[in-house]
Amino acid sequence: MPSLTLLGLGPGNPQHLTREAWQALTQADEIYVRTAKHPTVAALPPGVTVHAFDHLYQQADTFAAVYEGIVAEVLTLARRPQGVLYAVPGHPFVAEITGQTLARRAREEGLPLRVIEGLSFLEPTWRALGRDPLPHTALVDALTLAVGHVPPFPPAAPALIAQLYDRTIASEVKLTLMAVYPDEHRVALVHAAGTPDEAVRWMPLFEIDRDPEIGLLTTLYVPALSPDASFEAFQEVVARLRAPDGCPWDRKQTHRTLRRYLLEETYEVLEAIDGAQWDALAEELGDLLLQILLHAQIAAEAGEFTMTQVLQRIHRKMVRRHPHVFGEVEVADADEVVRNWEAIKAQEKGHQPQPSVLANITRGLPALMEAQEIQKKVVKVGFDWPDIQGVWEKLAEELEEVRQAQTPAAREAEIGDVLFVLVNLARWLGVDAELALRSTNDRFRRRFAAIEAAARAKNKPVQALTPDEMDAAWRQAKAEEKAAQADHPEP
Fold it and tell me: I want to staple 119 with a disulfide (CB 3.0 to 4.6 A). Which of 10, 184, 267, 291 is the partner?
């Protein structure tokens, strides 16, 4: 009667065939194998006719097409009165797409299904390595890893990367892993585990694609980088701090009490960026991440949301709002990306009218940044000068109003107007007002430090310097900065 039998051939040594598998093979007249290149195929019982699908690997452009072709042919054979015996390397359900797909399709069609277990490549690989996969080894497909940009598993856990079948794939896998692991990280290539040709070779990560023995039976083992090298490990630290027996200070914090720290850490990140202090930036980003995880942990304890939901939401948002990267949309330039972003954002909100064009601008922004965001919004609805001349005239008008202001309140208001117009002028000139002022602050710090140095050189306090002495030190610092810029111009 029509039926499908899936049989596991084991990792490659005929001695590892199960008794059930050997009995089925000795009773069969014919067998279909995914590939005849598996070592066990050569040791099948005499008299059994072997059909292989290796020709499909030569005809199809992708592995997906190969597997789709195999599944289609095997299902056709399974519908015959005598059914079909289909054998795969290892176990039918371990690192074997055709086995899983065929089982699902057979159940959907109502075809009788028999699965004959096989020893997978995993058991002899762990024995060869002398390692136990517990408590948390990641099992990864090399083809999936090769097309990624970063590993999809935490480096705090070891990983076993299967189907590293040639040096080209090994090279792509290496590049993905090196986005997280040091080039010299020690890894192991396991060749032909469980067969007489078994070999385990330890080497630095950057050398794996140089091994000439890489083939169909090769697996890569990547030991853990360190216990503290993952997002999940740090999340556990934060949860421990907030636990009943954790830190009293961390336990008493709330979303509101942490506000100041979130703002402080953000500014420290900006300071590291402005100073091109990359080691400091790494540390400050960690401090900022701590604030994010603390808020997520507090929310999880209150039943508000979890860190998983935070990650899911931003992941889905980024994919949804970048159809030119993750979909089929084509864009001409960055401006079109922004227009698409705004259109998608409006669609997400269900086209509900906003109470104000300015409704989504965060009031907690620094004043210059808030002014910039306000102007960006109103310009999009046509509230703008026809040309920059209007901005210059408005600036002159506001400066005159500052001169004429008679009360402290009036002066404050008029100075605010001048600053707002200056932000508008910066926008017209293509300058980020916030960054411009931060750069000026940095220059002032450097030049005033030169005045302080001049005072120390004369063994005087700064306030004892004359205005001319201060001015001379300032001008000297300014001249040195310009000379340095001339020697090292920005690209």
Answer: 10
